[in-house]
Each structure stands twice: as C-alpha cells, then as structure tokens.
Design a protein that fits this description.
- Its main location: membrane.
- It is found in: Membrane.
- One of its GO terms (cellular component) is membrane.
- It holds the Pfam family E1-E2_ATPase.
- This is Copper-transporting ATPase RAN1 isoform X3.
- The chain has about 220 residues and is an alpha+beta fold.
- Among the domains are: about 1-85; about 115-180, Distorted Sandwich (Calcium-transporting ATPase, cytoplasmic transduction domain A).
- Helices cover about 55% and strands about 15% of the residues.
- The chain is built from six helices and nine strands, in the order H-H-H-E-E-E-E-E-H-E-E-E-E-H-H.
- It has a six-stranded antiparallel sheet with strand order 2-1-3-9-4-7, with no helix packed on it.
- Strand 1 (about 100) and strand 2 form a beta hairpin.
- The longest helix has about 35 residues, at about 60-95.
- It starts with a helix and ends with a helix.
- The mean pLDDT is about 75.
C-alpha cells in the first residue's frame, strides 16, 4: 500500500519538479523530489541487502509517502486560499461605481477628474475619493473598511470611493480618481500578495538550489 501511494504521489510531484527544471530553475518541489528519492532508494537498498545478508536495516518508505502527502496537501490548501483571494478581488472590483451625477448630468466614473464637484444621490455609491463641500449625511463604509457603524460626513469630511451614501444628497469634490483611490490600492495590495512568494517559500527555493548543486557535485565526484 505504501509503495502504491509513493508511486502515485511521487508522480504528481515529479511532474511539477520537471516543469521547474525545464524552465531552468529549482524550487521546493525539486528539493522534495531529491530528498524523497534518496529516502526511497536507500529503503529499497536496505530491503534487498537484508534479504541477501540477513542483516536488516530500518526502511523509510512511510516517511517518503508522508512527506510527499504533506507537501501536496499544503500546495492544495494554498491553491484554495488563492481561489478565495481571487473571489475577494472580484467582489472589490464590483464595488467600483459605474456613473455619477456631475453638473446635474450623469457621467461615467472613468471621466471624473480631480477637482470635479459631484452630487451623490441617496443610496448611491460615492464614485471616487473626495471631500464633502456641501451637505451632511451618514455613510456606510463597511464594504471597504469593515466598519459596521455608520459614519457622519459633513463639510470638509473625507469620503472614500465605493462607500454608500444613505439618506440625503452630498456634494463632494474629487481628490483621488482611477488607480489612486483607496479601493484601487486595496485591490493592488491583494493582487500583489496573491502573486508574491512568502519569505519561507523563498528560503526553501534558495535551499533547494544549494542542495541541488551539492547533489550534482557529489554524483560527479563519485562517478569520477
């Protein structure tokens, strides 16, 4: 059973390590493949040597299988986490308003420029980051900041794009638009964190490079 599990799981990991090597790089998958291969080869040797000589040494088939299982399980959980992050990014993008009233005309939010004075109607989303120049009303910021308590916005109060204006109208002057808004910066941070590697993963990749070079030099030395 352990042998079958080793073969199935090792094949999955070997394919991932092979892709990394074909791209001219080494990563944690390569390190795990080298380690588990050495573990498996030694166990087979110990088993055959024991059958011939009668001197039985410990074998580590189960260690190899457990190591590969834990690595693949960790990568599976990482994939699930990235999927949830993608859903979160999609929901954040959906918060971006489509059009708002300016000079009593509704225009696309992409046409808004810093300094424009916008009228935000009751129940509408604030189109961009800005400052209140007229009116007083409560704003729901929960979808952006997580605050569950409604916040009162008055003249000179700062408002964040994509928050919801509740009952009365507000006139705001745009200060940040497009990629400079708070919502756009949040989306950028989430996307960056999704694509970047954790420090421990970078360290594992670095160790795998050193280990790969060490094993390669050892094999060449033994061959000579």
């Amino acid at each position: 059973m352990e042998l079958g599990l080793d073969v199935v799981l090792f094949r999955i990991l070997l394919e991932k390590a092979g892709r990394a090597l074909r791209n001219g790089s080494t990563n944690m998958d390569v390190l795990v493949v080298v380690g588990t291969t050495a573990c498996y080869v030694y166990s087979v040797y110990a088993l055959l040597y024991g059958a011939i000589s009668g001197f039985w040494s410990p074998t580590y088939f189960e260690t190899s299988a457990m190591l590969i299982t834990f690595v693949l399980l960790g990568e599976y959980l990482e994939t699930l986490a990235k999927g949830k992050t993608s859903d979160a990014i999609k929901k954040l993008v959906e918060l971006t308003p489509g059009g708002r009233v300016i000079s009593q005309r509704e225009i696309d939010a992409l046409l808004i420029q810093p300094g424009d004075v916008l009228k935000v109607l009751p129940g509408a989303r604030v189109p961009v980051d800005g400052v209140v120049v007229w009116g007083s009303n409560h704003v729901n910021k929960s979808m952006v900041t997580g605050e569950s308590v409604l916040v009162l916005k008055e003249v000179n109060s700062v408002v964040i794009g994509s928050t919801i204006n509740l009952h009365g109208s507000l006139h705001i002057q745009a200060t940040k638009v497009d990629s400079n808004t708070v919502l756009s910066q949040i989306i950028l941070v989430v996307e960056t964190s999704q694509t970047s590697k954790a420090p421990i993963q970078k360290f594992a990749d670095y160790v795998s490079i050193i280990w790969h070079v060490f094993c390669q030099n050892s094999v060449m030395t033994l061959a000579n």
